[in-house]
Amino acid sequence: MPLLPTLSTFFIVLSAVLVAIGWVLIVKDRRDPHRKVMIAAAVSALTFFIIYLSRTIVVGNTSFGGPDDIKIFYTIFLIFHIFLATVGAVFGIVTLVLAFKRKIGRHRRVGPVTSVIWFCTAVTGVAVYLLLYIIYDGGTTTSMIKAILGG
Ligand code: HEM
User: Transmembrane residues, as ranges (predicted)?
Assistant: First the structure.
Protein backbone atom coordinates (compact mmCIF):
# COMPACT_ATOMS: atom_id res chain seq x y z
CA MET A 1 0.00 0.00 0.00
CA PRO A 2 1.48 3.38 -0.97
CA LEU A 3 1.74 5.60 2.14
CA LEU A 4 0.82 9.11 0.95
CA PRO A 5 -2.05 8.18 -1.43
CA THR A 6 -3.51 5.89 1.27
CA LEU A 7 -3.25 8.70 3.83
CA SER A 8 -4.81 11.32 1.52
CA THR A 9 -7.65 8.93 0.54
CA PHE A 10 -8.25 8.30 4.24
CA PHE A 11 -8.73 12.05 4.80
CA ILE A 12 -11.22 12.37 1.89
CA VAL A 13 -13.28 9.53 3.37
CA LEU A 14 -13.01 10.99 6.88
CA SER A 15 -14.24 14.40 5.69
CA ALA A 16 -17.21 12.79 3.89
CA VAL A 17 -18.12 10.82 7.03
CA LEU A 18 -17.89 14.03 9.10
CA VAL A 19 -20.15 15.88 6.59
CA ALA A 20 -22.70 13.05 6.92
CA ILE A 21 -22.55 13.29 10.73
CA GLY A 22 -22.81 17.11 10.53
CA TRP A 23 -25.91 16.79 8.35
CA VAL A 24 -27.59 14.41 10.81
CA LEU A 25 -26.71 16.83 13.65
CA ILE A 26 -28.33 19.86 11.98
CA VAL A 27 -31.45 17.82 11.09
CA LYS A 28 -31.71 17.19 14.85
CA ASP A 29 -31.18 20.95 15.36
CA ARG A 30 -27.94 20.39 17.27
CA ARG A 31 -26.32 23.61 16.04
CA ASP A 32 -23.07 23.83 17.97
CA PRO A 33 -22.08 20.20 17.28
CA HIS A 34 -23.02 20.81 13.59
CA ARG A 35 -20.63 23.76 13.44
CA LYS A 36 -17.77 21.84 15.11
CA VAL A 37 -18.16 18.69 13.01
CA MET A 38 -18.43 20.64 9.72
CA ILE A 39 -15.29 22.63 10.60
CA ALA A 40 -13.53 19.30 11.33
CA ALA A 41 -14.76 18.05 7.91
CA ALA A 42 -13.28 21.15 6.23
CA VAL A 43 -9.95 20.67 8.09
CA SER A 44 -9.90 17.03 7.00
CA ALA A 45 -10.55 18.01 3.37
CA LEU A 46 -7.77 20.61 3.61
CA THR A 47 -5.41 17.96 5.06
CA PHE A 48 -6.19 15.75 2.05
CA PHE A 49 -5.40 18.62 -0.29
CA ILE A 50 -2.09 19.49 1.43
CA ILE A 51 -0.90 15.84 1.32
CA TYR A 52 -2.03 15.47 -2.29
CA LEU A 53 -0.36 18.72 -3.37
CA SER A 54 2.95 17.99 -1.56
CA ARG A 55 3.09 14.54 -3.12
CA THR A 56 2.34 15.93 -6.57
CA ILE A 57 5.16 18.48 -6.25
CA VAL A 58 7.80 16.35 -4.48
CA VAL A 59 7.11 12.74 -5.53
CA GLY A 60 4.92 13.25 -8.59
CA ASN A 61 1.81 11.72 -10.10
CA THR A 62 1.46 8.03 -10.86
CA SER A 63 0.13 6.92 -14.23
CA PHE A 64 -2.43 4.13 -14.64
CA GLY A 65 -0.69 0.74 -14.67
CA GLY A 66 -3.66 -1.42 -15.71
CA PRO A 67 -4.54 -2.85 -19.13
CA ASP A 68 -4.42 -0.45 -22.10
CA ASP A 69 -8.04 -1.07 -23.13
CA ILE A 70 -9.28 0.11 -19.70
CA LYS A 71 -6.99 3.15 -19.61
CA ILE A 72 -9.40 5.43 -21.50
CA PHE A 73 -12.23 4.63 -19.04
CA TYR A 74 -9.88 5.23 -16.11
CA THR A 75 -8.85 8.60 -17.56
CA ILE A 76 -12.48 9.72 -18.13
CA PHE A 77 -13.35 8.58 -14.58
CA LEU A 78 -10.32 10.41 -13.15
CA ILE A 79 -11.30 13.64 -14.93
CA PHE A 80 -14.86 13.25 -13.59
CA HIS A 81 -13.45 12.82 -10.07
CA ILE A 82 -11.18 15.89 -10.43
CA PHE A 83 -14.17 17.89 -11.71
CA LEU A 84 -16.29 16.82 -8.70
CA ALA A 85 -13.45 17.62 -6.27
CA THR A 86 -12.98 21.10 -7.74
CA VAL A 87 -16.71 21.93 -7.75
CA GLY A 88 -16.98 20.43 -4.23
CA ALA A 89 -14.13 22.62 -2.95
CA VAL A 90 -15.72 25.81 -4.36
CA PHE A 91 -19.15 24.85 -2.94
CA GLY A 92 -17.49 23.97 0.39
CA ILE A 93 -15.88 27.40 0.68
CA VAL A 94 -19.15 29.16 -0.30
CA THR A 95 -21.09 27.06 2.28
CA LEU A 96 -18.60 27.93 5.03
CA VAL A 97 -18.54 31.64 4.15
CA LEU A 98 -22.37 31.77 4.17
CA ALA A 99 -22.37 30.07 7.59
CA PHE A 100 -19.81 32.46 9.08
CA LYS A 101 -21.61 35.50 7.65
CA ARG A 102 -24.75 34.10 9.28
CA LYS A 103 -26.60 33.99 5.96
CA ILE A 104 -28.29 30.87 7.24
CA GLY A 105 -31.13 30.81 4.68
CA ARG A 106 -28.72 30.54 1.76
CA HIS A 107 -26.41 28.29 3.79
CA ARG A 108 -29.31 25.85 4.32
CA ARG A 109 -30.03 25.76 0.58
CA VAL A 110 -26.40 25.31 -0.53
CA GLY A 111 -25.37 22.95 2.32
CA PRO A 112 -27.14 19.80 1.04
CA VAL A 113 -25.80 20.37 -2.52
CA THR A 114 -22.25 20.74 -1.16
CA SER A 115 -22.67 17.62 0.98
CA VAL A 116 -23.91 15.45 -1.90
CA ILE A 117 -21.11 16.68 -4.23
CA TRP A 118 -18.62 15.88 -1.47
CA PHE A 119 -20.01 12.35 -0.98
CA CYS A 120 -19.63 11.74 -4.74
CA THR A 121 -16.07 13.14 -4.62
CA ALA A 122 -15.15 10.73 -1.83
CA VAL A 123 -16.69 7.66 -3.52
CA THR A 124 -15.03 8.39 -6.89
CA GLY A 125 -11.77 9.24 -5.07
CA VAL A 126 -11.72 5.83 -3.38
CA ALA A 127 -12.47 4.19 -6.77
CA VAL A 128 -9.54 6.05 -8.38
CA TYR A 129 -7.29 4.98 -5.49
CA LEU A 130 -8.36 1.32 -5.84
CA LEU A 131 -7.91 1.34 -9.63
CA LEU A 132 -4.56 3.09 -9.46
CA TYR A 133 -2.86 1.28 -6.58
CA ILE A 134 -4.79 -1.76 -5.36
CA ILE A 135 -6.56 -3.52 -8.27
CA TYR A 136 -3.66 -2.85 -10.64
CA ASP A 137 -0.05 -1.94 -9.89
CA GLY A 138 0.62 1.76 -10.35
CA GLY A 139 2.47 2.84 -13.49
CA THR A 140 5.43 5.20 -13.54
CA THR A 141 5.61 8.17 -11.17
CA THR A 142 6.98 11.42 -12.57
CA SER A 143 8.03 14.20 -10.24
CA MET A 144 7.05 17.75 -11.07
CA ILE A 145 10.39 18.97 -9.65
CA LYS A 146 12.26 16.36 -11.72
CA ALA A 147 10.28 17.42 -14.75
CA ILE A 148 11.11 21.10 -14.14
CA LEU A 149 14.81 20.45 -13.42
CA GLY A 150 14.99 18.01 -16.31
CA GLY A 151 16.15 15.13 -14.04
C1 HEM B 1 -26.47 19.36 4.95
C2 HEM B 1 -26.77 20.58 4.73
C3 HEM B 1 -26.64 21.67 5.75
C4 HEM B 1 -27.64 22.26 6.44
C5 HEM B 1 -29.13 21.97 6.31
C6 HEM B 1 -27.03 23.23 7.32
C7 HEM B 1 -27.73 24.04 8.19
C8 HEM B 1 -27.17 24.92 9.08
C9 HEM B 1 -27.89 25.78 9.98
C10 HEM B 1 -29.40 25.83 10.13
C11 HEM B 1 -26.99 26.49 10.69
C12 HEM B 1 -27.28 27.57 11.74
C13 HEM B 1 -27.11 27.09 13.11
C14 HEM B 1 -27.33 28.26 14.04
O15 HEM B 1 -28.31 28.97 13.89
O16 HEM B 1 -26.48 28.45 14.93
C17 HEM B 1 -25.67 26.09 10.25
C18 HEM B 1 -24.50 26.60 10.75
C19 HEM B 1 -23.23 26.24 10.30
N20 HEM B 1 -22.95 25.36 9.28
FE21 HEM B 1 -24.31 24.28 8.24
N22 HEM B 1 -25.67 23.21 7.15
C23 HEM B 1 -25.38 22.27 6.21
C24 HEM B 1 -24.12 21.94 5.71
C25 HEM B 1 -22.94 22.51 6.12
C26 HEM B 1 -21.65 22.25 5.54
C27 HEM B 1 -21.39 21.31 4.36
C28 HEM B 1 -20.74 22.98 6.24
C29 HEM B 1 -19.24 23.07 6.07
C30 HEM B 1 -18.62 23.01 4.92
C31 HEM B 1 -21.44 23.71 7.27
C32 HEM B 1 -20.87 24.55 8.20
C33 HEM B 1 -21.56 25.31 9.12
C34 HEM B 1 -20.94 26.17 10.11
C35 HEM B 1 -19.43 26.40 10.27
C36 HEM B 1 -21.99 26.75 10.84
C37 HEM B 1 -21.86 27.73 12.03
C38 HEM B 1 -21.91 29.16 11.64
C39 HEM B 1 -21.71 30.01 12.87
O40 HEM B 1 -22.30 29.73 13.92
O41 HEM B 1 -20.93 30.99 12.77
N42 HEM B 1 -22.79 23.41 7.16
N43 HEM B 1 -25.81 25.14 9.26
Answer: 6-27, 39-60, 72-100, 112-136
Number of domains in the chain: 1
CB distance 60 to 13 below 8 Å: no
Residue 150 lies in a domain: no
**Which mutation among 21, 26, 103, 104 tests ligand 1's pocket best, with the greatest number of atoms within 8 A of CB?**
26
Instruction: Give the DSSP letter of residue 62.
Output: E
Residue 151 lies in a domain: no
pLDDT 10s digits, 31-84: 999 999 999 999 999 999 999 999 999 889 899 999 999 999 999 999 999 999
* Residue-range definition of the domain harbouring residue 59: 3-144
Nearest to 147 by CA among 52, 56, 78: 56
The closest-lying atom of ligand 1 relative to the alpha carbon of residue 27 is: 5
CA angle, 95 as apex, 38 and 128 as ends, to 5°? 70
Check which CATH number belongs to the domain holding 103 and give it.
Answer: 1.20.120.80
Inform me whether the pLDDT recorded for 151 exceeds 80.
no
Distance from Cα 80 to the centre of ligand 1, integer Å: 27
